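U., I forgot to send this yesterday:
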Amino acid sequence: MSIGILTSGGDAPGMNAAIRAAFRSLKMRAPDCELMLFRDGFRGLARRLDSASDRNVDRKDVRDIIHRGGTFIGTGRVPELVLPPPDAPDLAARTAARESFLRVAAVNLFQHQVESLIVIGGDGSFCGAQVIAAAYRQTFPGRPFRVIGIPGTIDNDLHGTEYSIGYDTALNNVVDSLRKLRDTIESHRRAIILEVMGNTSGWLALQSAIAGGAAAVAIPEVEETWDQDDMVSRLVAGVRRDYRYFIIVVAEGVLKRAGADWSHALKRRIEEAQPIHDMLGYPMEVRINSVGHVARGGSPSALDNTLAGLLGSAAADIAQTGTIGRGEVVEGDVMVGCRGTRVITTPLDEVIANSPRLVTRDSELYQLSLKLMLSAGQPF
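Result:
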């Protein structure tokens, strides 16, 4: 038996810890089990494996990686795995490139007798893994092969798990930036618009805004949070109550849905707000900052490393024995996730069909934000 591991999509702190946990769990049970690390995501499956993979991995290869952010085996996205639209002008070329990529990946997996492929990433990565698995089974029918997904994304938007690897570290990085910005804007009596990652889901923006004591948050799932008239009226009420500063957290998905100029438009609205000028005697200055990729950098948090250990070890158990926990049989392609400190599994096609997991108006965190953040009519 040979077991492969790769990291795909955006990097997430804790991916290295998951690889280490899988290695240690595999070797504790079967020291002779071969572990292959594919480099640079799915790209490593479709290149010459002598240069794109590490075989016969031993302890020194995973030594001291638990403290490192990112992924030491590299990651990336593969456009060839995306099915081109029927009206694409280069449809034939893209279809041929996709088929070639899948054929080479399947042959490489077969030649090295990889029976389980552990993929650490998000829903896009799992979609790619599912396509590769289908190509493998079509090319080599009857050969055992399964995909085991480990959720690794700072967006925390996967169905089938309460938390994904990397989210806690990114959350703490954003809150740390928010707290440091608070010091300077309070000194100058300013407002700041802080843009954070989150293309389709607003979990990172929402929870960092709550944890960091922001005045307001704008997330892509809830359109009323983008309402700049409401935002300005809330800030006017805050100035009337002698608030010295305001922090507005914005998920990047808002800029894609409401317009790339959203933050700059809000900045102008606040600086030109006459009621604020009348109360202060001068316009309130507004700055725009972006946390960006800093959010997913640095050493993983203790929580992320613990989660990575749980899920990496569980994925290894499934790969080797087909069971999890106290002997629960796991069949087919699955993702391991967590519910509290308990490891659970969800069929991979179910994860893909129900992801991304989005913030809704009745989400407890969203309802909490309505209570804790600045409102135009708050009586205190």
